[in-house]
Amino acid sequence: MISAGKGKYRVWLKEVSHGDDVVLFLGGGEKPHIGSVVLSEPGKKTRVLNRKGHFDWMVAKPIASIICKKKKKPVVCISGIHVDDATKEEIEILKNNCKLLEKKL
Hints:
30% of the residues lie in helices and 35% in strands. 30% of the residues are buried. The protein has helices spanning 57-71, 88-104, and strands at 2-4, 11-18, 21-29, 36-40, 47-50, 75-82. It has one domain: 2-Layer Sandwich (Ribosomal Protein S5, domain 2), CATH 3.30.230. By secondary structure, it is of the alpha+beta class. The protein has a six-stranded mixed sheet with strand order 1-2-3-6-4-5. The chain starts with a strand and ends with a helix. The protein is globular, with a radius of gyration of 13 Å.
């Protein structure tokens, strides 16, 4: 597992092998949850499934794509990062911490 940020702005990524495929869990904030599911397959367009009102795909999609390209395997990323009543500034902090995760991949 890798992580970036501190306190309620900490985000983390856990990778699990599932046969020849990869499952990623991207979470953080005050309450990790299932907000979005991203499927990235070699040579195909990445697909997204969201729960209503969730935008977790925005940080999960590039991470799933990077791992898929790197490992040349199908990747599912289950993501959910939540901070109660997050301000625009707090959302930017979380997004930047997800970018830091990308750099660690």
